[in-house]
Amino acid sequence: MNLEIPPPTPKDQLSPFRPGFGSTPPVMVGRQPEVTSFARALDGSGSTGRTVFVTGQRGVGKTVLLNIFQEVADTRQWFTIREQASAGFVDRLAHARLPEVLESHDAHESSKSKVVGISLPMSAGGLTVRSETTSALVPDLRSHLMKVLELLDTHETGLLIALDEVHRSNLDEFRQMTDALAYAMSQEAPLAFVAAGLPASIDNIVNDDVSTFLRRADRINLGSLSPTETYEALKTPVEQAGKAFAEDAVEFGVELSQGYPYLVQIVGDLAWNEAAGADELTREHVEAIEDEAKMVLGRQIHDPTLAALTPGARRYLRAMTLDDGDSSTGEIADRLGVKKQTANDYRRQLIAHGVVEVPSFGHVRMVIPYLRSYLLERDDEVQ
Q1: Which helix (H) or strand (E) segment is 284 a member of?
Q2: What dihedral angle (degrees, nearest 10) is formed by the CA atoms of 236, 239, 240, 241?
Q3: Final residue before a domain boundary, out of 188, 221, 254
Q4: Which pLDDT tens digit goes with each residue over 96-108?
Q5: How many CB atoms sit inside 10 A of residue 201's CB?
Q6: Which end of the chain has fewer CB atoms surrounding its CB within 10 Å, N or C?
Q7: Domain housing 314
Q8: Parallel, antiparallel, or unpaired for β 127-131 and 113-118?
Q9: Rounded Cα–Cα distance for residues 109 and 103 (Å)
């Protein structure tokens, strides 16, 4: 039997939802306080609120919030440098991204002076500069950064550095980054810094002995959307695209997605495509894609999450599947046949990775939708 290639979907029938990682949803809900706070920080004259960590489990919208922060910077005519915080990111910032900003502002003219510090408020003259000397200096991240900030200050604008996928394995590079950031912030330079990563990685960086400056950074812990926010995130894009979304269908979509931002986009996208050319998305359309939505979630969220855990932490999760609800930490230790301290080490790892939470003393709860059922279905594979 030959495979059939579906014909292209007409542009006016394309799904309005954005289930891809890092894609900004058509309707942003539940993040207004964080966006407003960051916008006010850029408008202010000091550094308060300009250093931010965005954390949370996979699929809650960390990268999306970085996208929105970049849009905020754009509205203030600030430049943005985006980088993945993988190995070598400091070198890429110093020798690629920052020089690109300089080149866009006439690098030849900007190279004639060097930042020393600030002697006046930004509104009264900005950065103090002096002529280059003939001394042989090896430029590092800080010198490149300050040269760019000097240039942007003369144009009455600023710079946002946004790092995604922050990982604890790059602590040495973050120490270099911290040195540059702390110096620039101490000079009241027009700079903002936001970084996104899993809770475990952010904790390692913030708690590093050399990174004391970052302990004062604001932290945004992203979680699930409320039922009201989920309802709006599902229904509004459909209506804006010119279709109706039956009330009972939206309500089932809210129940199915459990407020998990990534799953909201999956459910909306699959239901839209299931409805094809229909003028209304019905409950039958949403019910038809339930299994597929959970399968996509397992492939995109559950598998990578489990792969990042130690075998002990995975066994801890499997022990939790015996409970249809919250689990007792003492009972989990007994099921594993390990000392309570060992079980607590596993529990702390799961909390740091955003996989479980502590609803009350002595109890834990899985926070990623459908993880329990996924583990039960793959019981023999999760070791």
Answers
A1: helix 283-288
A2: 130
A3: 221
A4: 999 999 887 654 3
A5: 24
A6: N
A7: 308-377
A8: antiparallel
A9: 10
